[in-house]
Amino acid sequence: STKRDLLLSVRQPRAAPGFGTSAILYVREPHVLDRYATHEWAETPARMLGPLLVRSLEDADGFSAIVQDPNGLPVDLRLDAEIVFLRQNFLTRPSVVEFAMRVQLIDVRNRRMLASRYIEFAEPATSDDAGGGVAAANAAVARTLTQVVSFCVDATADVHPSRQQLR
What we know:
The chain is an alpha/beta fold. The chain has 2 helices and 8 strands; from the N terminus they run E-E-E-E-H-E-E-E-E-H.
């Protein structure tokens, strides 16, 4: 990948209604979300996703810097992300974890959306319980992060920084 002199801000991801919880959610009948009684995420998935997005984008090395909280820095681009759903689906056997995210890349300087993408994966669970669901969720998130990085790099291929370089 080619590193460009672009400062990318990653906004704290949001979650669609019903998915902004630390409960590990599953579906046993269509359109009905349930939660495991004794298992939950350490934090809401949306809050855990922010640092993972930052780290994945940093590892890709396609931008001069990635910041989660720009604190007034003049950023070039902003990535907005929303978890559409994260659930273990028991309507199939073995169960699958379904993870969907919507991402938007905003050109902050010109106040326009550069690109938007909907990414969805269904990952088979290794077992039909919370442990199998968590392992499958981790795999689905990893696959999604790879897609988000490619999306960001591809969508910014023709974007050039507006800041004057000091020489």
